[in-house]
Amino acid sequence: RRSSDLYAGTTTSVSNNTFTKIAYNTKNFDTANCYDSTTNYRFTPNVAGYYQINASTQAASSPGNNAPMALYKNGSWAATGSSNVNYLNVTVLFTVFTV
Fold first, then answer.
1. 59-77 pLDDT tens trace
2. Which residue has the higher pLDDT, 87 or 60?
3. Is the pTM of this model over 0.85?
4. pLDDT at residue 93, as a whole number
5. What is the 3-state secondary structure (H, E, C) of the chain?
6. Cβ–Cβ under 8 Å, residues 42 and 21
7. Distance between the two ends of the chain, CA-based, in angstroms?
8. Overall average pLDDT of the 40-45 stretch
9. How far apart are CA 31 and CA 2, in angstroms?
10. Distance of alpha carbon 65 from its chain centroid, rounded?
C-alpha cells in the first residue's frame, strides 16, 4: 500500500477566472516517494494499480462567486469540484488506474 499526505505550507494567491496550481509542498509522509514536493508538485506512481486521489482546499470568496478546483492527469483535466460561499472548502475525489 502506497500513501502520501501533503499540504500547502503557504497561502496561494489566485486571479479571477484563472486556474492556478497549488503547491502542496509539505509532506507529512510519502511511503513510496511518489510525490514531487519541490518542483512540479505532481504525484507519479511507481507501481501500476488503482490510486485514489483526494484533494481539498479552502478559499476566501465573495458570496455567490464560484471557486472551482480541478485535478489533472497527464496534463489534461480529469476531475473538478466547486462551491460558491464565503470561506469555502472544495474537495475533489478521483480514482485513477495506472499501468
1. 766 666 666 778 888 888 8
2. 60
3. no
4. 67
5. CCCEEEECCCCCCCCCCCCCCCCCCEEEEECCCCECCCCCCCECCCCCEEEEEEEEEEECCCCCCCEEEEEEECCEEEEEEEECCCCEEEEEEEEEEEC
6. no
7. 16
8. 89
9. 6
10. 20
Buried b (16+ CB within 10 A) or exposed e, 57-94: bebeeeeeeebebbbeeeeeeebebebeeeebebebeb
Do the Cβ atoms of 84 and 66 come closer than 8 Å?
Answer: yes
23-27, 33-37, 90-94: segment of lowest average pLDDT: 90-94
CB contact at 8 A, 21 and 41: yes
Nearest to 45 by CA among 27, 32, 28, 54: 32
Q: Which of the two residues, 58 and 33, has the higher pLDDT score?
A: 33
CA–centroid distance for 78 within its chain: 11
Parallel/antiparallel/unpaired status of strands 4-7 and 67-73: unpaired
Q: Which amino acid is at 87?
A: Y
Whether 34 contacts 45, CB under 8 Å: yes
